[in-house]
Specification:
The protein has 64 residues and is mostly helical. It has 2 helices and 2 strands. Helices cover 41% and strands 6% of the residues. Strands 1-2 form a two-stranded antiparallel sheet. The termini are far apart.
Length: 64
């Protein structure tokens, strides 16, 4: 639990009967939480990242 970049981080602990179903349960929980957030109009803020792509081919032409 704590603060993320643009979030409150929580930990949910769940007991399951069959360990082989772990990933199915995890997926079901994630989808259920996401659906509930949507029904309550809760939007998860994601930080914006800018990506700058350098054209190295032009740089190498100038050096020749």
């Amino acid at each position: 639990m704590g603060f993320g970049d643009s979030s409150l981080d929580f930990e949910l602990r769940v007991r399951i009967v069959d360990i082989k179903k772990r990933y199915d349960v995890l997926s079901d929980l994630n989808f259920a939480i996401n659906e509930r957030f949507a029904s309550e109009n809760i939007v998860i803020p994601f930080p914006q990242r800018d990506l700058h792509i350098k054209d190295w081919s032009e740089e190498s032409k100038k050096k020749k």
